[in-house]
């Protein structure tokens, strides 16, 4: 092994958001040749993401996140190292053999939406967030919005460093091979014309209001379906209202499609084939799907809240009020009916997404940790 020993808690590598973050930062760090990287997590999962590389070493552990077991186990598993990085706030509480400790806090969702959690989980989140800031030598986050949110919930004078996420334009781009596009559409049983939603199914994603807005479009004879990436059974944390809407409205239910799991290689075609990406989230620490959609030539409507204006800029997205169903419906209608708006959003989006790269983010990260 060469260079500084850099240990990463990579147990969340298959998580849709944090997993992408871990993958791109670890690969970027490895490409510098400065670090000997040790990954903690499932060897099977990590090997499926990272190629055999002399810069990587995997310590195979199977310890659930947010568990008492991780607090008992991790301090003894983390090897002696120069840097230990927790890419989420569930850091080891006991001392570890690291010269420097880093943490990334992506957002304060578990506090802001604490009412969707049980009292124990809510208390755990509040305590861990404060402890993560206190025990870490450097605290990172992914947007200025998240930075302000952390300061709002944690009384600290510590400098919190905001470094944006990136986007891999080699993965997310327009595919001009009509045969491949057809095959993916056929595999996923995609409707001819559709509005797309990409994201998890937590309450902050605002799917209930999106469905109600879509219902308004149906009543106006818009011949579109709504495609939701994920499983119908995945709804959690008080989204029973979604089930009620779909169960009690046969017309609405017939026009909503859940894709199930989608391979990352197929996702760009879902974007480029969509009429519009609807992203009416109430709360986002960053929000990758809008940038991914922009890179694939898909116009975007997003909420005018949290980090989304910061990420999408002034011209690359059409902004809506996520708390007003009419605003969401009007935004969708504007993009679907007005070709000039649609073309302008696609053009501005293609420029905006190029401002975010993982290599740029990793470079800023390295400068911060090497000070």
Give an overview of the whole structure:
This protein is an alpha/beta fold and 371 residues long. The chain folds into two domains: 4-166 and 357-369, Rossmann fold (3-Layer(aba) Sandwich); 178-355, 3-Layer(aba) Sandwich (Rossmann fold). The chain is 43% helix and 17% strand. The chain is built from 16 helices and 13 strands. It has helices at 18-32, 43-49, 68-77, 109-112, 119-135, 144-153, 178-187, 207-219, 240-248, 250-254, 267-273, 289-295, 308-312, 325-337, 339-352, 358-369, and strands at residues 4-9, 35-41, 56-60, 81-86, 98-104, 138-141, 160-162, 194-198, 225-229, 256-258, 276-279, 300-303, 318-320. The strands form two sheets. It has a seven-stranded parallel sheet, sandwiched between helices. A six-stranded parallel sheet has the order 10-9-8-11-12-13, with helices on both faces. Strand 12, helix 13 and strand 13 form a beta-alpha-beta unit. Helix 8 packs across helix 14. The radius of gyration is 21 Å and the shape is globular. The chain starts with a strand and ends with a helix. The mean pLDDT is 92.
Oligomer: single chain
Radius of gyration based on Cα positions: 21 Å
Spell out the CATH superfamily of the largest domain: Glycogen Phosphorylase B
| Amino- and carboxy-terminal Cα gap | 23 Å
Low-confidence stretches: none
Number of strands: 13
């Amino acid at each position: 092994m060469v260079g500084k020993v850099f240990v990463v808690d990579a147990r969340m590598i298959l998580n849709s958001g944090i997993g992408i973050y871990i993958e791109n930062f670890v690969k970027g760090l490895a490409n510098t040749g400065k670090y000997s990287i040790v990954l903690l997590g499932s060897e099977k999962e990590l090997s499926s993401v990272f190629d055999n590389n002399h810069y990587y070493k995997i310590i195979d552990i199977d310890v659930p996140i947010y568990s008492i077991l991780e607090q008992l186990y991790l301090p003894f598993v983390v090897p002696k190292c120069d840097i230990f990085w927790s890419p989420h706030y569930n850091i080891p509480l006991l001392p570890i053999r690291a010269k420097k400790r880093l943490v990334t806090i992506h957002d304060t969702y578990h506090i802001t939406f604490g009412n969707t959690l049980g009292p124990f989980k809510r208390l755990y989140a509040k305590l861990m967030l404060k402890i993560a800031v206190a025990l870490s030598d450097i605290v990172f986050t992914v947007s200025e919005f998240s930075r302000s949110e952390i300061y709002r919930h944690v009384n600290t004078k510590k400098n919190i460093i905001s470094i944006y996420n990136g986007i891999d334009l080699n993965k997310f781009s327009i595919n001009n091979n009509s045969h491949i596009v057809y095959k993916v559409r056929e595999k996923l049983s995609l409707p001819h014309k559709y509005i797309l939603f990409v994201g998890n199914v937590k309450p902050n994603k605002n799917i209930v209001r999106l469905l109600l807005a879509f219902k308004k479009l149906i009543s106006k004879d818009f011949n579109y379906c709504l495609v939701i990436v994920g499983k119908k059974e995945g709804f959690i944390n008080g989204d029973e209202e979604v089930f009620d809407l779909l169960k009690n409205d046969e017309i609405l239910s017939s026009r909503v499609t859940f894709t199930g799991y989608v391979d990352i290689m197929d996702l760009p075609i879902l974007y480029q084939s969509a009429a519009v990406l609807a992203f009416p989230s109430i709360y986002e620490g960053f929000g990758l799907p809008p940038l991914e959609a922009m890179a694939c030539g898909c116009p975007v409507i997003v909420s005018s809240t949290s980090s989304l204006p910061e990420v999408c800029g002034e011209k690359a997205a059409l902004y809506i009020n996520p708390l007003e169903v009419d605003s969401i419906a009007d935004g969708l209608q504007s993009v679907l009916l007005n070709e000039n708006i649609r073309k302008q959003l696609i053009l501005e989006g293609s420029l905006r997404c190029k401002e975010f790269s993982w290599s740029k983010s990793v470079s800023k990260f390295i400068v911060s940790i090497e000070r």
